[in-house]
Amino acid sequence: MTAIQICALIILILLVGLTYWAGYRGGLIDGRVEGIDEGMAIQQSDNSQTVRNLELSLDQARDHHKQLYIHYERALAASKLGESERQTLLAIAEKLRIAAETFAAFRTGKKLERDAIALREQALAMAALLEPTEQEAAA
Q1: Distance of CA 121 to the CA centre of its chain
Q2: Which residue, 78, 74, 77, is CA-closest to 126?
């Protein structure tokens, strides 16, 4: 082998080594970048799952708030009922008592009598709820 061939062989070996080293370093950098991207995607996925869970909780809280507001409106409307409504319920209860006694006179009116008595009891219970208490009278 001549000196030129030996130098060419050394240069060829160096070029192959440099090419291998450049490929190794490029692959290492690409792998690192890909790993960082994958880690960020996993973190973003976890964050999006958390956001979805929080949005679901917010929707549930809104629904619960709507239900509570509906109950509040009903309670507010019920609290506005007063003495005139109580007197009306007592009058209804009296009419139902008369109807129950009338139905009791008929042989086929037993079911109607029971229904009238049950409705009378409900009307009396509602009237009792509307009856002003001593604390309200003191206020």
Answers
A1: 38
A2: 78
Report the 3 state secondary structure along 25-37: HHHHHHHHHHHHH
Rounded CA Rg of the chain:
44
**Tokens describing residue 74:** 């009903």
Diameter over CA atoms, the chain: 139
Global pTM reads 0.39
SS3 104: helix
* Residue-by-residue pLDDT tens, the chain, 139 positions: 899 999 999 999 999 999 999 999 988 999 899 989 888 888 888 888 888 899 999 999 999 999 999 988 877 776 777 777 778 878 888 888 787 777 777 766 677 777 888 888 888 887 777 776 544 444 4
Could you tell me if 120 and 93 are in contact, meaning their C-beta atoms sit under 8 angstroms apart? yes
